[in-house]
Write a structure and sequence with these properties.
Immunoglobulin-like, seven-stranded mixed β-sheet, 4 helices, five-stranded antiparallel β-sheet, disordered N terminus, 275 residues, single chain
Length: 275
């Protein structure tokens, strides 16, 4: 048995003998791993001193080169500190890139949860790894209400006015899959450097297009010629999940213009604004 597991067993025995009750979330399990951070890759990935790549479960942070990516990385470094960390698994052990999927603890701080609560990560749960779904959603709701980090609102009055996540068959099928935005403001908007992103890592960046007040623009997932009514993602596969996803619209400074979460319920979709 490793020294880390021995230490866990001793802690459990001592606490039990003393009649002390603590949260089962904070209490390590015999299957948890103990290690140190070699370096932080980005806001949701680290490399450990034993050579493992760790992808934080239940969260997603901005990719390199986009607003808030550096701040998310800095916040993660702060939370991890320089001491020993504990790695807690869920059902699936690794992702498609071979990275270990883990909840990370620094002392009694649940780092995944605090990244969400700080506003530098949004919830991104992929079944079957959903152990902390309720806690993560509660932390996200707190961050949204406080308008922290990623949830800082943009001054632009543009809304997600319609969404169609279903794609049809055939060559034009992907262009049936659309998100529509409406400019409710009084002024035209140059949308250069604006972007639309899903819950995962798909992101579309607008080119030099003027969004006139009182008009709408649809973003189709497939290919076509851009106009002032419809622009095209240029994807060769579906972007939006049929059973549920999150739509983020951000301005040139990375501020949240509008956000919407939708999910399938029966034969229709239910949606809720991120506010």
């Amino acid at each position: 048995m490793s020294s880390g597991k021995i230490a866990v067993a001793v802690i459990i025995l001592v606490l039990a003998a003393a009649g002390i009750l603590i949260s089962s979330d904070i209490l390590p399990s015999a299957n948890d791993e103990f290690t140190h951070v070699d370096y932080v890759v980005d806001g949701d990935t680290i490399r450990t001193t034993n050579g493992d790549s760790i992808r934080f479960l239940g969260i997603n942070t901005p990719e390199r080169g986009v607003p808030y990516a550096d701040k998310a990385t800095e916040r993660l470094e702060e939370l991890l500190g320089g001491g020993e960390i504990r790695l807690e698994g869920d059902v699936a052990d690794k992702d498609g890139y071979g990275r270990l999927l883990r909840y990370v603890w620094a002392g009694d701080v649940h780092v995944n949860l605090e990244m969400v609560r700080s506003g530098y990560a949004h919830v991104y749960v992929i079944e079957p790894n959903s152990k902390y779904w309720d806690e993560l959603k509660e932390a996200e709701a707190e961050a949204i209400a406080a308008k922290r980090g990623l949830w800082e609102p943009s001054p632009y009055d543009v809304v997600i006015s319609d969404f169609q996540p279903i794609q049809l068959s055939g060559d034009a099928g992907l262009n049936y899959e659309t998100i529509t935005f409406t400019n409710n403001g009084d002024d035209p908007i140059n949308m250069t450097y604006w972007n639309v992103k899903d819950e995962a890592t798909h992101m579309y960046g607008f080119d030099d297009i003027t969004f006139e007040p009182g008009t709408s623009i649809s973003l189709a997932s497939g290919t076509g010629t851009d106009s002032n009514i419809t622009v095209y993602w240029g994807s060769d596969s579906s972007i939006w999940n049929n059973n549920g996803d999150v739509i983020f619209l951000r301005d040139e400074n990375g501020l949240l213009v509008d956000g919407l979460r939708y999910w399938e319920e029966g034969d229709s979709y239910i949606h809720k604004k991120l506010e």
